[in-house]
Design a protein that fits this description.
Blueprint (H helix, E strand, L loop, with lengths): L1 H15 L7 H4 L1 H33 L5 H33 L9 H40 L3 H10 L1 H29 L2 H32 L3
Helix pairs in contact: 4-5, 4-7, 5-6, 5-7, 7-8
Keywords: Membrane, Transmembrane, Transmembrane helix
Length: about 230
């Protein structure tokens, strides 16, 4: 009997006690608001952590070129290589011109005057061509080294800081063409009669002046439309 009474009392207490709801936040509006605030704050913290991680990755790895940017960088470096090859060809051609002169070309005051200018202009042309070749070859070589080593930031800084050197190299390359024309004119006075040399030099000077104006216009358009 006592056991039966004890069981009945336990049943009454359990039936009269309030049941615990695991989803109390749905029944209690205050708990639901607190949970939403906590969730929003946790979301903000997670977003902040993601941004910090991305910033750390960007700081460690630096700028990374895309495939399209890599194609443009490669085209630019190949263009610099073309300048260096052109300078090498001009230096080789000028060296052959200078090496063609002999001591017999200095016989007489008239011939020795043009022979001296021939040697001087040819030598200056060789030096300018070699300077342009070395400048563009080094810039292209170091630029490819930066890109190959995944140092894109270093490449951008290197290309920016060597802009003045590339400009002087391009001016030296243009002066090579002027030097070749002047050297050929001196050679005409050394190898041909004076009247023939004067006539050919006059025509060559007119053509060179027209070509110089065209080159100047092209350079002006490039500076205004591309490099401005």
């Amino acid at each position: 009997d006592e056991m039966a009474l004890t069981k009945n009392n336990l049943r009454r207490r359990s039936s009269s006690a309030p049941l615990l709801d695991t989803h109390s936040d749905e029944s209690d509006p205050g708990a639901k608001q607190i949970w939403q605030r906590v969730t929003s704050k946790l979301t903000r913290v997670n977003d902040a952590m993601r941004l910090m991680r991305r910033a750390q990755i960007d700081d460690t790895m630096g700028t990374t070129f895309s495939e399209q940017q890599m194609t443009r960088v490669s085209m630019r470096l190949e263009g610099m290589e073309s300048y260096s090859v052109l300078g090498a060809l001009i230096s080789g051609f000028s060296l052959q011109l200078v090496s063609s002169i002999t001591m017999a070309d200095f016989d007489g005051l008239f011939c020795s005057f043009f022979a001296a200018w021939f040697i001087l202009l040819g030598t200056l042309t060789i030096v300018a061509a070699l300077y342009a070749t070395i400048i563009f070859a080094l810039v292209s070589l170091h630029g490819k080294a930066c890109v190959g080593m995944n140092m894109d930031d270093a490449y951008l800084n290197y290309i920016t800081q060597t802009a003045s050197h590339r400009e002087t190299g391009f001016v030296a390359l243009l002066s090579c063409f002027v030097g070749i024309v002047a050297t050929l004119m001196c050679m005409l006075f050394m190898r041909t009669p004076t009247f023939t040399a004067s006539l050919v030099c006059f025509v060559s000077a007119c053509v060179s002046w027209i070509a110089a104006r065209r080159v100047k216009d092209i350079m002006h358009l490039a500076s205004c439309l591309i490099f401005s």
